[in-house]
Amino acid sequence: MKTFLLFTAFGSKQKDILHVVIKNVQMKILLTGATGYIAQRLLPVLLENGHQVVCCVRDKSRFDIERYQSDDLELIEVNFLDEQTLKNIPDDIDIAYYLIHSMSTNIGDFAKMEDVSAHNFRSQIEYTNAKQVIYLSGITNNKILSKHLNSRKNVEDILKSDKYALTTLKAGIIIGSGSASFEIIRDLVEKLPMMITPRWLNTRSQPIAIRNVIEYLLGVLNNKPTYNKSYDIGGPEILTYKEMLLRFAKVRGLKRMIWVVPVMTPRLSSYWLYFVTSTSYSLAIHLVNSMKVEVICKENNLNDVLGGIQLIGYNQAIQLAFGKIEQNQVVSSWKDALTSSTLNNGISKHIQVPLNGCFTDKRQLNIINSDRVLQNIWSIGGTRGWYYGNWLWELRGIMDKFVGGVGLRRGRKNPTEISAGETLDFWRVLLADKEEKRLLLYAEMKLPGEAWLEFKITEENDLIQTATFRPLGVWGRLYWYAVLPFHGFIFKGMINNIAKA
User: Fold this and answer.
1) Rounded Cα gap, residues 20 and 143, in angstroms
2) What does the alpha-carbon distance between residue 24 and residue 414 come to, in Å, rounded to a whole number?
3) Is 344 domain-assigned?
4) How close are the terminal C-alpha atoms of the chain, in Å?
5) H helices present in 204-306, as ranges
């Protein structure tokens, strides 16, 4: 038996408060949704507390295990929609976190997927030694719920079992660097000085800082008084979405004007979110439907059970989030969720760029400073841009949005570092290997085919830039020839500027 101390610092204007939590037993923990926003925040905290963590991922290629450098971390491939893969879950786990969420997917019915995933998870966990399952859900106190919140409530019912204790934490809007709510609010406030908005902006919510969410998730771990209990968790303030937008603007020193009108339909509201923010259209629809429902906590004694957690206010949560952004310390982003139907079977299946039946644009330059050029490659996209014809890339992003694609607004999580599985504007990173000096991107824009973009520096100090397109039928070939005139100066200018920037 080991004893571990967790020291969590809370900043305030007056002083820093140190909260100490003592964990007496090293646990073997199963962490589902390990590439997701919440799990990526929770994982390092669990490891710091001396626990063994088994991470469930659908594709190992998407998980950068080297960044943790821990002997207590194990990686297994599990797809909770495929019962056969669940056999990879070890029997000797003590606790399991259920952090699987399918609302952002654009493949199939997310509610059915969540139902199947929950049933498969429970069936397998009942065969293990797990004594507790911790589930992060949404606040479901209203009589009328959206499809998203109904699904969350249904999953909770499915996860209940006589074989283990279920602890459910229900959160509303989560505010933190990289969270969906934070990024959507940021997009709206920073891009629109004046807004004519739908009436759901008057809906009340109880936002909670990501730091508090992680504290709660850690606090209920192996905490017997919380077994077979359900708790709402929220911050100290109840705000309308309009108030959240205006207060975000005030924290950022921006003057914004908002008018709420009753005539904007849910469809128009969804388009409004979709075109202004980095959400997909399917996610925008689910968000709009959920935002019409009040998410306010019912009182409970969880804070007393955990010894008192200092709740972070909305304004401070925003300041803390921007502190992480400005220091390039964003640990996880909701945008990295794997939602492409093409990539649903895994990144590794697309790392081998096809040769047959493809069009290619290959360019090569000899360079002097390979380290500097590699740094330029690793900084591509986002605010840095694409080194040539950025307005054309932006136009392509707008066109992609109009046909239901992701556009360029996803940006990138870190301006200089990147890992496999992350989003990069309208690309997905398939491979990012600095030792091999190779970056491989896969297009997630709407295309009549598949596209790859690869950068590689050889041992002879040659920079090789290759764009590959595998057309789908006649339309794919017509598309390639239509954009071919632009490739001549876009790709030439890009490689030249990367080599000399």
Assistant:
1) 39
2) 36
3) no
4) 55
5) 210-219, 241-251, 266-276, 281-291, 302-305
Dump pLDDT digits (tens) for 374-390: 999 999 998 888 999 88
Q: Answer yes or no: is pLDDT of 324 > 70.
A: yes
On the question of pLDDT at 114 being above 50, the answer is: yes
Number of domains forming the structure of the chain: 2
Same domain, 271 and 394: no
By the 8 A CB rule, do 116 and 78 touch? no
Reported as a single tens digit per residue, the pLDDT across 132-146 is 999 999 898 888 877
Are 187 and 320 members of one domain?
A: yes
Q: What is the DSSP letter of 311?
A: P
Lateral strand order in the sheet of 449-457? 359-366, 462-471, 449-457, 438-443, 427-433, 423-424
Looking at the whole model, is its pTM more than 0.85? no
The residue segments making up the domain with residue 411 are 349-500
Q: Is residue 340 part of a domain?
A: no
Rg for the chain (alpha carbons), in Å? 23
Q: What is the pLDDT of residue 500?
A: 85
Question: How far apart are alpha carbons 316 and 75 in whole angstroms?
Answer: 35
Asked if 220 and 112 sit in the same domain, the reply is: yes
Same domain, 308 and 386: no
> Within this chain, do residues 223 and 365 fall inside the same structural domain, yes or no?
no
